[in-house]
Amino acid sequence: MQTAVLDQVAPGSKIYTDEAKVYRSLPNEYVHEFVNHVEKYVNGRVHTNGLENFWSLLKRGLNGTYVAVEPFHLHRYLDEQMFRYNNRKGENGRKLTDAERFGLVLSQVVGKRLTFAEVTGKVGETPF
């Protein structure tokens, strides 16, 4: 777990977790605060509710949208959910409509190409 944090989280970031032992050895370059769920679930700004909400939405989205989820594409499902979650509201704090969020997606794919070979994991294979 510590390797994942070190690889993905910028030094100096605030990290809010529960009291699991796996987080106790994080380097001092992070501001690590935790909440003891035996005592309470929120301690001021310190809580894990946002992450628990994200995972709940991801699981409901996967179960309600897709017939089967391929492990090969899991990072893509996560990227989609992260985009939805991080773009719930615009810069002005107003909730984005589906059309506005779709326009944002389209503005980020211009000039990019995803081939069938990439989608199916067959990049570099020679055809029979």
Task: Present the secondary structure layout.
Layout (H helix, E strand, L loop, with lengths): L1 H7 L5 E5 L12 E5 L6 E2 L2 E2 L1 H17 L8 H13 L11 H12 L6 H5 L8
Parallel strand pairs: 1-2
Antiparallel strand pairs: 3-4
Provide mean pLDDT, rounded.
88
Tally of helical segments: 5
Give the N-terminus to C-terminus distance in angstroms.
42 Å
CA-based gyration radius:
19 Å
Strand order of the largest sheet: 1-2
Number of DSSP strands? 4
The profile of the biggest β sheet is: 2 strands, parallel
Q: Give helix % range.
A: 40-55%
Overall, the morphology is extended
Q: List unreliable stretches of 5+ residues.
A: none
Question: What is the percentage of strand-forming residues?
Answer: 5-15%
Structural class comes to alpha+beta
Question: Can you offer a commentary on this structure?
Answer:
By secondary structure, the protein is α+β, with helices and mostly antiparallel strands. The N and C termini lie far apart (42 Å). It contains 5 helices and 4 strands, in the order H-E-E-E-E-H-H-H-H. It is extended, with a radius of gyration of 19 Å. The longest helix is centred in the middle third of the chain and has 17 residues, at 49-65. The protein has a two-stranded parallel ribbon with strand order 1-2. Strands 3-4 form a two-stranded antiparallel ribbon.
